[in-house]
Design a protein that fits this description.
By secondary structure, the chain is an alpha/beta fold. It has helices at 15-33, 53-61, 79-85, 131-141, 156-168, 213-222; strands at residues 4-10, 12-13, 37-41, 66-68, 104-109, 112-120, 146-152, 173-177, 187-189, 193-196, 201-202, 236-245, 251-260.
Length: 263
């Protein structure tokens, strides 16, 4: 086992275009970054809202290690059974107890365990259990050196606050999802934790956060509900790569990337 863990993260997959691009490029990205762990956020992969069993199977077959989600995870009919069946499919851990699925997973890599956590913010989103308090509880139960968090949240202030809070708790890497726009602030906090406010999305960039322009403009200008349609054109892939020391859990490098796919 190498002395460092190479982590590849891809942002929110939006519909068919994002899924098609991720599956087509994943093997190349894995080779480029020598990835040990691949994490993708799949909550928008099924026509823009939710995820289903077929998509989970496609992503796992393509080499994905863990699929995180967020507030749209509940949109598909089979999701309750799917969350209970697929251990590598996470939903935010700070939803009320008793719901299907879980939000934390431990991966065994050689003789080391890596803890991956999915949490959801509360500002401008649903009123869930406090993600800060939930993280403290999780870290008491999981004492692995390497901890990685997908913080699915709307507000940049809340995301940065969670970043500094997580760094104080010894977390290795925290990346934000949900807003679908990659931020230009990838950095290492407190000299030890990799951080980015939002890793971005894998979606058609000619649309509005991956959706067709006309229906989105109608909603924004009139506030009259309309059915969102995912824009099905070649997607931009947004993600990040980070190296984490296997012994200390400290992040040594973090690099955000984005590029236009050919499919």
């Amino acid at each position: 086992m190498p002395d460092k863990l190479s982590v590849l993260v891809l942002g929110d997959i939006i519909g068919r275009s994002g899924l098609r691009a991720v599956i087509a490029t994943l093997s190349t990205l894995k080779k480029r970054y020598h990835s040990d762990v691949i994490i993708v956020n799949g909550e928008n992969s099924c026509d823009g809202f939710g995820i289903n069993a077929q998509i989970v199977a496609q992503l796992l077959h393509a080499g994905v290690s863990v699929i995180t989600t967020g507030n749209h995870v509940w949109h598909q009919n089979d999701i309750h059974e799917l969350l209970d069946r697929e251990n590598c499919l996470l939903r935010p851990d700070n939803y009320p107890s008793g719901l299907p699925g879980h939000g934390t997973i431990s991966l065994e890599l050689g003789k080391k365990l890596v803890c991956i956590i999915n949490l959801q913010g509360r500002r401008y989103m649903q009123a869930l259990d406090c993600p800060f308090q939930k993280l403290k509880t999780i870290l008491k139960q999981h004492t692995q050196k390497i901890v990685i968090i997908d913080f699915h949240a709307e507000d940049t202030n809340e995301k940065e606050a969670m970043g500094f809070f997580a760094a104080q708790k010894g977390v290795s890497l925290l990346f934000g999802t949900h807003t679908h726009v990659q931020t230009a602030d990838a950095r290492i906090i407190k000299g030890s934790m990799g951080y980015i406010t939002d890793v971005g999305a894998c979606c058609a960039q000619e649309g509005i956060i991956g959706f067709e322009v006309d229906t989105t403009l109608q909603l924004i200008q009139t506030n009259v509900p309309s059915e969102f349609q995912v824009l099905d054109k070649p997607a931009t892939i947004c993600g990040l790569h980070a190296d984490i020391c296997m012994e200390t859990g400290e992040c040594s490098t973090i690099e955000a990337f984005n590029f236009q796919s050919s499919v």
